[in-house]
Design brief:
Number of domains of chain A: 1
Strand order of the largest sheet of chain B: 4-3-2-1-5-8-12-13-14-15
Mean pLDDT of chain B: 96
CATH class of chain A: Alpha Beta
Strand content of chain B: 25-35%
Strand content of chain A: 25-35%
Mean pLDDT of chain A: 96
Number of strands of chain A: 11
Low-confidence stretches of chain A: none
Helix content of chain A: 10-25%
Order of helices and strands of chain A: HEHEHEHEHEEEEEHEE
Oligomer: heterotetramer
Largest sheet of chain B: 10 strands, mixed
CATH topology of chain A: Glutaconate Coenzyme A-transferase
Distance between the termini of chain A: 53 Å
CATH architecture of chain A: 3-Layer(aba) Sandwich
Low-confidence stretches of chain B: none
Order of helices and strands of chain B: HEHEEEHEEEHEEEEEEEHE
Largest interface: A-B, 59 and 52 residues
Radius of gyration of chain B: 17 Å
Largest sheet of chain A: 8 strands, mixed
Chain lengths: ~230, ~220, ~230, ~220
């Protein structure tokens, strides 16, 4: 068993045009910077990207957008990004918007072998159009379907050679479920340690969900909104 | 005339009860955190995976991996916990969050809310708002009563909906109202605002019973 | 906010006849010993118990069984227990058996506001009788419904005064989901610490799911099958 | 004549591949862990919440909070992880477990399996077996070919099913067989067992093509 790859180049081997790829992160927090950076240097295009957001103009998935490598975006909140707006309005980019919790649960369901489930979110709104509706306990729900991907790309704080992952603070977000939902899951981590060095009682993503892992380099970890208070 | 944003937040903070878990939306709702009464303890949930939001960090404590749902850097309080988005929305969808406070473009007398999309303008997405309004035990909307003379407290929403029959209470610059089976029930007036002014600014059915007290801020 | 109660007696306040109660644990591992012990001393009866197993003759839920406090058992694997067998065969005890993963997911769904979902487990077996069937991706699935409870009783290793919980090794099992699915969730812990003493990055059950918490006493932690190897 | 339980386990261990995640059922399957080839690494999953089961503990290392799905005390290996039952069955249902090895009362030529209930006898429950057979990528059954002269390799199962059309390969005391669209394809004989003996012990349709080799143990 060897899941460790050298770098992002090696990690994305086999990724090709028109594939569906999940990217972890919320805004720019917890995004797989290394894989995105390297992917933007390839000719791979026509991607269906599943990610809560789509980066900003000059960072994160914004790189892939600028190169027109993305054909369709499945997301919950987008458009901190002028190029995104332009491509969407011109029809170059297809966009499917999901309630955030529904998106998260669809991804978990994909990883957990649950093809469909009912949720109340979106009932009575345009999200419900074309979806099966059903009442449970006096409340209307709609049927949502699982999401999976050819590749899931996640970013963790620490990882071990077995693929076990630990996230820091709010950087878990979509990473933990996406790791479950990729046919091939790539994890890039800030620190890669030998199996046995992470406490087995406090693993966020068990290694079974991860097929390739590497220690990333040059993390920028850009912050969208630095908000501070005055020291007392 | 009418409340400013901070006063709306201050009035909403009176709705908080000890032990509440609360999700605050972006905008006015975020300001509510500044007015939590001193004698009670509420826990703020951030749907990107934090229970127990603390104040903004001092400049030397800024941490890229620690943000709120508005993507602002924050801190966490003692007894906080971090988790993934599926667990976060399990809390929300499962009704474990006691109160959601969010903004809106429009609210209808049936409790429908429109808050995420203005046709013809750029659509940024619903984020967690649809999940929140569909499932929170209690929903308070913080909003302006009208916009350029157009009432936003309506018989029917004109914009695409975020959720149906979900809003329980509305706090605007002019008034506090509850959504009831018979319409908007006027509970309080903003200081200096008359019932007549509220009637004029409200398109939806307004129920006025007895003397309407002024808010205490 | 005060979730801390003195002991199991105080924790079960409000529990009454015919309620639905979930009990965490797998076999005798991770069961809430204190609450079970105290509940067995009450006159509360007619309970619908949801638990993966039903204890053994002289420990765990076996106590409640012996007292005939349980009307119906929703479980996955039962009957390490002669009294259970007797009551089931005589019709005194109603039993609903679930595939273990379906039981776990039904409980999580209950806590997560998902009223129903599709799974492949049990299709074509007696578990599927009376359930809606549907094909997804060429495979048949059945519709399963969420489980919730008036009370969920869970056992953790460490807990804090905010209700945050940490489990040890395989003692998480059903406890983590059940904590989510109780209208009132009682957590008994081996060690109760002030809020702020557990690392927020490594909480298994966030405190929002727990309404009452206390430090248990006299844990027996009985082992069903002690299996050992020879020291080398 | 035929293999004993340990020999069945030893033969099944030859099916393991490096990097496999494997769930072992109670009984013969558990013994497979003793015969993992030295040059490969497999990770054993226990559905009560452990990935990376280690050997039984020495007496001074017994830990009540560390058991396998058979409720036996175990240890964990380097790189193990613990998790709750929902996550555990997410692994199983989601097809992340490469191989499930379990026992059975009966198997049919369509790949149906009966393993949990004998009408008239006490029903203990299906535990995780139904989830495992419905979703594992690959399923090998370890069982006796017949019981008191009654074949258990059948045209149709007579007992209540655990799952339908799921079994891929069967290793019995007499033979190794694959379930194919046309019936049980005989792959190997137990040492000293003749094809005729296997035919006699098999009720379901048996496909015999060419010379059937003896198992290498």
């Amino acid at each position: 068993m060897n899941k460790v790859v050298k770098n992002a180049e090696e990690a994305i081997k086999g990724m090709s045009d028109n594939m569906t790829v999940m990217f972890g992160g919320f805004g720019l927090c917890g995004i797989p910077e290394n894989v995105i950076r390297v992917l933007a240097q390839t000719q791979i295009k026509g991607l269906v990207c599943i990610s809560n957001n789509c980066g900003v103009d000059d960072f994160g998935l914004g790189f892939l957008l600028k190169n027109k490598q993305i054909r369709k975006m499945v997301a919950s909140y987008v458009g901190e990004n002028a190029e995104f707006e332009r491509q969407m309005l011109s029809g170059e980019l297809e966009v499917e918007l999901n309630p955030q919790g529904t998106l998260a649960e669809r991804i978990r369901a994909g990883g957990a072998g649950i093809p469909a489930f009912f949720v109340p979110a979106g009932y009575g709104t345009e999200v419900a159009i074309g979806k099966e509706e059903r009442e449970f306990n006096g409340k209307m729900h709609i049927l949502e379907h699982a999401l999976t991907a050819d590749f899931a790309v996640v970013k963790a704080w620490k990882g071990d050679t077995n693929g076990n992952l630990i996230y820091k603070y709010t950087a878990s977000n979509f990473n933990n479920m996406m790791a479950m939902a990729g046919k091939i899951t790539i994890a890039e981590v800030e620190e890669l340690v030998p199996a046995g060095q992470l406490d087995p009682n406090f693993i966020h993503t068990p290694g079974i969900f991860v097929q390739r892992i590497f220690q990333g380099v040059n993390y920028e970890k850009r912050i969208e909104q630095v908000t501070t208070s005055n020291p007392k | 005339m009418g409340l400013d944003k901070n006063q709306i937040a201050k009035r909403i903070a009176q709705e908080l009860k000890d032990g509440y878990y609360v999700n605050l939306g972006i905008g006015i709702p975020t300001l509510v955190a500044n007015y939590v009464p001193e004698n009670i303890e509420v826990t703020l949930q951030s749907e990107n995976g934090l229970l127990g939001i603390g104040p903004f960090p001092t400049p030397n404590k800024v941490e890229a991996d620690l943000i709120n749902a508005g993507k602002q850097t924050v801190t966490y309080v003692d007894g906080a916990s971090f988790f993934d988005s599926a667990t976060s929305f399990a809390m929300i969808r499962g009704g474990h969050v006691d109160l959601t406070i969010l903004g809106a473009f429009e609210v209808s007398e049936e409790g429908d809310i429109a808050s995420w999309k203005v046709p013809g303008k750029l659509v940024k997405g619903m984020g967690g708002a649809m999940d929140l309004v569909a499932s929170a035990k209690n929903i308070i909307v913080a909003m302006q009563h009208s916009n350029k003379g157009q009432s936003k407290i309506l018989k029917k929403c004109t914009l695409p909906l975020t959720g149906v029959k979900c809003v329980k209470r509305i706090v605007t610059d002019l008034a506090v109202m509850d959504v009831t089976p018979n319409g908007f029930k006027l509970l309080e007036r903003a200081p200096g605002v008359t019932v007549e002014e509220i009637i004029a600014a409200t398109e939806g059915k307004l129920i006025i019973e007895g003397e309407i007290p002024e808010m205490k801020l």
